[in-house]
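User:
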Amino acid sequence: MSPKMPMRTLVLFWLAAISPMFCADSQKITIKGSSTQGKNVLLVEARVAGKSVQFECFRSQKSCIALIPGDYFMERLTDGGIYQDCRNVVIYRNGTHPSKEKSLGEYCLLEP
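Assistant: Predicted structure:
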């Protein structure tokens, strides 16, 4: 067995072990529609893993945009974010990877 083989095995094991950490908070979503609630709040209706969910954002934020119906990619932020009292998520176009693409917007995930 060559000396490179244990290192290659170690690297492959390490990649397999950490890859779920990067994917655990990312999901495909389907946006059903967006509507304005009052003057300042944008409400977005979506389906995530077969469940209906809602996102909201303040229209005064640059990252708050109305999304047209269709498939997108959602990433749950594990730390920080604009909104303090809920889980912050960022939305990306379908088929893009968060590390290579700027998000379309940041929203508050309203969980039941």
